[in-house]
Amino acid sequence: MRLDEIARALDCELRGAPDTEIVRVWPIETAAAGDLSFVANPRYRRYLSTTQASALIVAPDLDDLDVPTLRTTEPYLAFARALRLFYVAPPRQEGIHATAVIAGDAQIGAGASIGPHAVVEGGVRIGTDATIASGVTICHGAVIGDRFTAYPRVTVREAVRIGNDVILHAGAVIGSDGFGYVPSAAGVLEKIVQGGTVILGDEVEVGANATIDRATVGATVVGRGSKIDNLVQIGHGCEIGEFSVLAAQTGLAGSTRVGSWVQMGGQTGTTGHLTIGDLSRLAARTGVVSDIAPGSVVGGYPAVPIEAWRRSRVLLNKLGDVLRRLRRLEKALGADEDSAPSP
Amino acid sequence: MRLDEIARALDCELRGAPDTEIVRVWPIETAAAGDLSFVANPRYRRYLSTTQASALIVAPDLDDLDVPTLRTTEPYLAFARALRLFYVAPPRQEGIHATAVIAGDAQIGAGASIGPHAVVEGGVRIGTDATIASGVTICHGAVIGDRFTAYPRVTVREAVRIGNDVILHAGAVIGSDGFGYVPSAAGVLEKIVQGGTVILGDEVEVGANATIDRATVGATVVGRGSKIDNLVQIGHGCEIGEFSVLAAQTGLAGSTRVGSWVQMGGQTGTTGHLTIGDLSRLAARTGVVSDIAPGSVVGGYPAVPIEAWRRSRVLLNKLGDVLRRLRRLEKALGADEDSAPSP
Amino acid sequence: MRLDEIARALDCELRGAPDTEIVRVWPIETAAAGDLSFVANPRYRRYLSTTQASALIVAPDLDDLDVPTLRTTEPYLAFARALRLFYVAPPRQEGIHATAVIAGDAQIGAGASIGPHAVVEGGVRIGTDATIASGVTICHGAVIGDRFTAYPRVTVREAVRIGNDVILHAGAVIGSDGFGYVPSAAGVLEKIVQGGTVILGDEVEVGANATIDRATVGATVVGRGSKIDNLVQIGHGCEIGEFSVLAAQTGLAGSTRVGSWVQMGGQTGTTGHLTIGDLSRLAARTGVVSDIAPGSVVGGYPAVPIEAWRRSRVLLNKLGDVLRRLRRLEKALGADEDSAPSP
Description:
Three copies of one chain form a homotrimer. By secondary structure, chain A is of the alpha/beta class. Chain A has four helices and 38 strands. In chain A, the strands form five sheets. In chain A, strands 6-9-12-15-18-23-26-29-32-35-37-38 form a twelve-stranded mixed beta sheet, covered by helices on one side. In chain A, strands 7-10-13-16-19-24-27-30-33-36 form a ten-stranded parallel beta sheet, with no helix packed on it. In chain A, a hairpin with a 4-residue loop joins strand 37 and strand 38.
């Protein structure tokens, strides 16, 4: 693709040869001739003088370079869109495969692609242009918007409600039973029926083998545009706002409330029935046991401000030194204890 | 449903209008007219004066309220059962779907519902009234009791033994190979065949996408009534007692022994070949590296008594203060070190 | 099986009755008459005098025992191979099941066993002697070597490349989209297309419900002989060397580089864009936030040398004592602070 075509498609200013031929979009560290790359983060500027890329997406104010450049105030976004220009999607099967089992009263909009062995149960309603891969099951009464994408082996349980432009990756389970039991006098654990549901807003994406439990009553909610990574667990009755991002293997205990534009690092956990404010950011593996104020940046278990967490980790490694110095002082003062601990 | 009907069904004493019409069972914080709610935990009593609920399940000794009440010594249990009264299960397909593949020598009891594209391999025996959803695979020689429920895409590997009233949620894998390799002289990792199996007792419930590995020899065992949440991993050769509860994303390394009535918080882990005693309780994300005595309440990694864990967390945040005070003392004593660390 | 046959099969020296009949291979602690067991680790030698096993695999230099022995320099490896001698695999369906959906242009080598409802899409190439269980989906253009084993419900996404002798356990997902978004000026999160792929080397084994994301560009790579346990997450663009072992629920953030012969304990996590050197060993639940030198043995979060991590854990529990002694010194020096913290 010619660089001027790309510039137009990405709405960037072009500086340099418009007929530069681009064959691939690639990170700057390993880019080769024919590649379009980008620099957003200043620490990657060191590659500018040595890169083999044929063109670069950079900020408007960067000095002119030897290679042609595309100028934009958002180089990373333009790079992401350039990737899309060159992306070749696998072929899409048109229509409903003969081996799919679709209930007579299911309503499926125009333009659907439904793969082999998919199952759509009674009362389901799906919007237009759905892409449902092989082995997906949509259970009774689920209601799904337009441009739905479900990769192989997704399960959407009964009565779940899903917005437009939602993507569910392979093996994701939406609407599994919440985890609730009550000990009975008979000395057993009685299951609490999970009669609620799950609501996924528009543009939600759920990762491979992630699980989102249905509420006991009411609904577990994931708001518009929020992104849930692989192997994340969302407990019953959780509510997540808009455009929040939960990295892989994070787990939310029941009734956790997560605001909008929240970022949760991988393997984070919450103990439930608490609130994580809008725009807060949680380091990987944060353990949340009480409310997090909006805009907080936290880490550790229990979660504390990120600087405090980092400092405590450093200090922990100085503890042996603290003990040694303490003993020296005690000795100087003749205050040794018989039971003085040794490090 | 009339309140007197509900009182009879739940075996509660009714105080107030027997013809109160209940349409929904709902938590007290957000209950509305027509709702039946409950108060078990004293800290929810503050809602008693303001709730819009039409009736409440409460303890026998609570003062009379303005709204009708159902009296029981176990309000939470009664609430759970009330939920069941109002629960509407999705329709159940009767019989075996034409697309299911059932081996000629498989034995399936009366009353089975087997969904599209389910697979039951040779030599499998399943009791009465099984509900097996679409895309479930039961491998060779598995033996399963009565009233078995498997949600979509469950895999039960060969020779696994499952009791009565077991529920397996979507994507759960029972009997995958244990994780065992041995380095050989040839400089490769040789797989140790996993010739054992898994035994699930009566009333076991396994969450979505959870995995339970088969033993190398003998069996991985989950005892009667134990509940395994989503995305839990149970390694080969583990043994879990009765009515234990393992919250989401917990992982048991091989040969962990867990007693009965144990509660494990989410994201807990064990290093294997150790014993967790009956009735012990583990905080979320506990890391167990040695035996836990029966009845213990522990947290942290490595696990320590819960009070010690909480205290050490608090103290960790005071370390900067300790260092500062230590330096002040050293200065007062003229005992500064050249190499004194700075916080 | 006669013990002399076993000795020949395992290439061990036999001492004792060659016609000893062995019916089972079993660990020494619970071995019974008819069992073949082994002792590799010296701490199991205490069972030598009491075991009921009929024969034992032991090191060449061990004293003669009352029971017949098989002598080898690698008793554990011989035990693993003995297990294989007695292992009875479940029956293998020959050929391609009538309900499998195989694209016309897919190439599948001789000797394939393909189960019910499996799907092989267009352009896929699979080597000889594949065993593909029910409900597996191999997406467009994937290329797979010889002796491939996929358990039920595995998903291999488009264009993934897989070597020889690879085993994928039930529910594993290979090639799901990497987790990448960029905030746009419009105030939404734009998906970064994931146009790369996954490459699995020969002899790789991937556990049940584990997920390996495809790269944004290029490939996520798992090298020859590496073993990935259940519920592990491998982010986009990671590269793992040869014969590394990642225990259950470990998560690698994007672009993590793991060397060869690395051992990662369960629930370990990495923050991405870092390197873990060859032969390093990580304790369970290590949190890696910076490079790990080759051959390191580390633990903790952030990861520190294993001895330092163990010591800091011990010291943490002495913090209360430190504070108490510090206050005593301050008092002795008349250096009390009004604002002195209490433990």
